[in-house]
UniProtKB/TrEMBL annotation:
It comes from Variovorax robiniae. This is Thioredoxin family protein. Residues 1-98 form the Thioredoxin domain. InterPro entries: Thioredoxin-like_sf, Thioredoxin_domain. It comes from the Bacteria. It holds the Pfam family Thioredoxin.
């Protein structure tokens, strides 16, 4: 496992790219992933080749590359394939970080869902 960034706090979220060296999309994604790491210094980033680190990655059953895992001491926030676009990953990370303090409009929506769930059930 190669950590791209080492300075954030111990309780920082980890953003892990589960990849394979033979995957062309993964090789093209790595510089973009490193760019996102530099843009989010409060998070920790790691690049894990699932073949080099099968002992760690086998439990994830990676079917599509690249697969992103975002997790921390509070649990897993995201795990799944993601197109290799730096902007998409960066937007998701910004959303996850701001999710710790809900926006007023989110609180309003959640209150309505709690008050009258029958109107919104699927």
């Amino acid at each position: 496992m190669n950590a791209v960034l080492q300075s954030p706090a111990d309780d920082a979220l980890w953003v892990v790219c589960l990849c394979a060296e033979w995957c062309g999309a993964c090789r093209e994604y790595r510089p973009l992933f490193e760019q996102v790491a530099r843009a989010h210094p409060s998070l920790r980033f790691a690049w894990v080749d699932i073949e080099d680190h099968a002992d760690l990655a086998d439990d994830f059953d990676v079917e599509t590359f690249p697969t992103i895992l975002v997790a921390g001491t509070q649990g897993t926030h995201f795990v799944g394939p993601m197109l290799p676009h730096a902007e998409t990953l960066s937007r998701m990370l910004a959303s996850l970080q701001s999710a710790r303090a809900a926006d007023p409009e989110v609180n309003t929506l959640l209150a309505a869902l709690r008050d009258k769930p029958e109107q919104f059930e699927v």
